[in-house]
Design goal:
Helices cover 56% and strands 18% of the residues. It is of the alpha+beta class. The radius of gyration is 39 Å and the shape is rod-shaped. The two termini are 43 Å apart. InterPro entries: HATPase_C_sf (IPR036890), HATPase_dom (IPR003594), His_kinase_dom (IPR005467), Sig_transdc_His_kin-like_C (IPR004358).
Length: 388
């Protein structure tokens, strides 16, 4: 299983876990809110009965229990209205008004809102039910907090998931970077010894067979190996970019690929007449273009086709496009082509485009992306480099 698949599974697991926690929290909160609302209504029914008892009390009636019930409500907002809608009593109401008249209006408005929401208990004061009071009540602060809490919890859980995924990706990327740098340095080191030996042998062969036509080609291959070892040794370091001609670099790649690919594949160029100069590490940048060209050759699968290298510039950027007539990339795979370990080849490692992306973005501060791709028609990769 590829690392990208494992990361995707971890992210799906974290998101599903967050959703389950949020749903469970909402259900529990809803149940608690419902129970507390029922409990508060029961309290208000008792409080309303106490108000009726107070209004019907005679001079010699013991009101100590009634007053105790009324005074114990310190949390639930309540407004008592007479049958004409006038405020006769209120408790636990926050009032922000300039004068007494405005205060009465604020309390009346809140009572009307409570009554319209169905939070009202009507208490008849006589048998004919013509005289009554409306006890309007609202939600206590505790009830409001319990209703809002699951949404706060959901936000915290989602924040945790985002931070966890970011930390996972950052940690894995840092680990991969260390592995790539270590492998690159070790590869360059291991190549050094046989390359030195081959250079010595070619020197001996040149002295022994000075007119042999194969020796110059062997010397070119050894120089190629030296270039590869040099590229690997630069991975992990930050080589200083120097001004170089993109025309020359691209022509060098075309010349190299043209001699090592099938005659059925045509290398085409579309360069401006004047040199396009940018700061770069020519050796590493050649590696990027070679990777794109080799992938293009693989995408053609031995069929006839062409690879076109296009170069242009404007005031701020140099633009390189590598277009092939291969099998193309599926839309669902385009966003993954630069991910380490992702490959559509049976024997691929999924590191070529990932390294190309790193070389362009980290070493050259540019951008590389799939400009367009159509299955069965081909793909265009685009590289943008700053000229300043």
């Amino acid at each position: 299983m590829q690392w990208t698949d494992r990361i995707r599974q971890v992210k799906i697991f974290l998101v599903v876990a967050a959703i389950l926690i949020a749903v469970a929290s909402l259900l529990v909160s809803r149940s608690l809110t419902h129970d507390l609302a029922q409990q508060e209504r029961s309290h208000m029914e008792v409080w309303a009965e106490a108000m009726r008892s107070l209004s019907e009390a005679e001079d010699n009636t013991d009101l100590s229990l009634v007053l105790k019930v009324l005074d114990e409500n310190n949390t639930i907002p309540v407004v008592v209205l007479d049958r004409d809608g006038a405020v006769t009593e209120y408790r636990n109401i926050e009032i922000k008004a300039r004068n007494a008249k405005d205060s009465v209006q604020v309390v009346t408005n809140q009572a009307i809102q409570m009554r319209d929401a169905g939070q009202v208990i009507r208490i008849p004061l006589n048998k004919s039910h013509k005289d009554y009071i409306d006890v309007c009540y609202g939600e206590s602060l505790m009830l409001k907090r319990i209703a809002v809490y699951p949404y706060i919890q959901l936000g915290v859980v989602m924040l945790f998931v985002v931070v966890a995924i970011f930390a996972l990706l950052t940690s894995k990327r840092a680990e991969q970077n260390k592995v790539w740098v270590g492998l690159s340095k070790e590869t360059a080191h291991q190549l050094g010894t046989p390359i030195s030996s081959l250079m010595a042998w070619t020197t001996i062969l040149k002295e022994t067979y000075p007119n042999d036509d194969l020796l110059p080609e062997m010397d070119k291959d050894i120089q190629r190996l030296q270039l590869i070892a040099d590229r690997f040794s630069k991975i992990g370091s930050l080589p200083e970019p120097v001004p170089a001609s993109l025309n020359e670099v691209l022509n060098h790649v075309v010349d190299y690929m043209d001699r090592r690919t099938s005659r059925r594949i045509t290398m085409k160029t579309d360069f401006p007449s004047e040199d396009v100069i940018v700061k770069m590490n020519a050796s590493l940048f050649e590696w990027v273009i070679e990777n794109l060209c080799k992938n293009a050759v693989d995408a053609m699968g031995g069929e006839a086709g062409s690879i076109t290298l296009h170069l242009e510039e404007n005031d701020h950027r140099a633009i390189i496009e590598v277009t092939d007539t291969g099998k193309g990339i599926k839309k669902k795979d385009i966003r993954n082509v630069f991910r380490p370990g992702f490959t559509t080849k049976e024997r691929g490692w999924g590191l070529g485009l990932s390294l190309a992306n790193r070389i362009i973005e980290e070493y050259h501060h540019g951008k590389i992306f799939v400009k367009n791709s159509e299955v069965g028609a081909g793909t265009t990769f685009r590289i943008e480099l700053r000229k300043d």
